[in-house]
Amino acid sequence: MKPFETRRMIVIVLLSYLGCSPEPTTDEMIIFSESSFKNYDLRGEEILKNELGVIALHVIDTLVLIEFMEKGDWVYQVYGTQNFSYIGGLGKIGDGPNEWRGPRFSGQTEQSETTLGLWVNDMRHRNFQLIDVYKSIDKSEPVVISSKKYPSDLNMNQNLFYLNASRWVGNLGPNAKERNQLLIYNPLLDTSETIPFSIKVANSELLNTSEQYSTYFTYLALKPDKTKLVSVMNHLSRIDVFDLKNKPIRQSTTVSKEEKHNDLDGEIIKRDRSYLFNYYMWAFATDSYIYALYHGQSGSKYAKDLISTEIRVFDWNGNPVAKLNIPEYLWSFSVDEKNGFIYGVSYFQEKSMRYPFSLNE
C-alpha cells in the first residue's frame, strides 16, 4: 500500500445525539482571507533521529507515542517527552485476546488522577477500546477499561470518537455505500444515522468507490470536552464545526474566499489529476483551538514537491486566529499547549520535529 493510500485510512470520528434529525442546522458561514491570520514563523529541532518511517507522534501527558508506516511487534513505541528516553511498546499486534490488528487512534483520551485512558478503534477486530496507557506498556495484552464490538457493515474504519455509552460519532471508510460527512451510532440499540455533506460534486456518478472516497475525504477532531467536533476537508478549503449540544446538531462553516470551497466536478476529476488540490491534511483539537495542517498544492505534486507547510489555527466559532509557518513538509502533528510545543512528522523528509510556539506573543 502506498504511503498516501495508507494515510487516507487514518481514522477520524465524531459523536452526536442519536435522537436528532440527520440534517444539521447551518448557523453561519465565515469567509476569511489570508490577511485574517496573525503569522508566526516556527523553527524546530529534529528529535528521535534514529527512528525512521515515522508517520505520527501522539503526545499524551508526558509520553510520545510513535507510530510507524511499517509495524513491528508493537503498534506504538513509547518515549518520554522530557529527554526522549525509550519506555516500551504499546499494543501488541496479533489476533489474540485484546491484541490489535489495524488500530486507529483519533487523539481522544480520558484522564483522571490515577488513570490515563486512550481510545483505540481496532478496525480489523471491529472493537472500540479504552485502555490504561501506563499499565499497558510492554504488556502482551493491554489493560482494558472499556471495550465494545460493533457490526462490520458500519464501515467505521476512519477516526472514531466516544461521547457516552449510547453515542459514538465518526466518518465513513472507503467501502461505504454512500458518502456522508458523519456517522452517528448508538451501540446500545445498534442503530445509526448519517449527516450528509453540504457540498456539491457534479457528475459524481462517474466516480468509482475509491475516487468517491478520495474526493470527499475528511479529517475529524473532537474538542476534549466533547461539545464540538471539527471536520476539515482534504480537497476543499473548508472547515465545518458541529455543535453537539443542540438538537438538531448545529453546523458552522469557515471557508477561504481565495480558494475552492464548494463545487467539484467528477468528470474533471476522472481526466485531470491536477484538478484536485490538497488543502487540509490533518487536524488536532484542544479546548481552546482547532489546529489544521494545510498544504495548498495540487494533488499531482503531493510527495514530489516538498514545500513548506502551515498549521492554521481557528477558534471553536470558526474564526481564523493564527498561521504557523513550518519549513518542513509535514505529514501529521500533535499539539502540547500546556508546555508550548508542536510535534510534527515529515514522512517524506524522514524527520520528526519539535517546535516551540506560543499564540500569546
Structure notes:
With 361 residues, this protein is mostly beta strands. The protein contains four helices and 28 strands. Mean pLDDT is 90; it is low at 1-23. The protein is 6% helix and 46% strand. The strands form seven sheets. Strands 1-20-19-18-17 form a five-stranded mixed beta sheet, with no helix packed on it. Strands 2-25-24-23-22 form a five-stranded mixed beta sheet, with no helix packed on it. It has helices spanning 3-7, 133-136, 209-215, 266-271, and strands at 25-32, 38-41, 45-47, 54-60, 63-68, 74-80, 86-92, 103-111, 116-122, 127-132, 143-149, 160-164, 167-170, 182-186, 191-195, 201-202, 218-222, 228-233, 238-243, 250-256, 264-265, 277-285, 290-298, 309-314, 320-326, 332-336, 341-346, 351-356.
Summarize the structure.
This protein is mostly beta strands and 361 residues long. The protein has helices at 3-7, 133-136, 209-215, 266-271; strands at residues 25-32, 38-41, 45-47, 54-60, 63-68, 74-80, 86-92, 103-111, 116-122, 127-132, 143-149, 160-164, 167-170, 182-186, 191-195, 201-202, 218-222, 228-233, 238-243, 250-256, 264-265, 277-285, 290-298, 309-314, 320-326, 332-336, 341-346, 351-356.
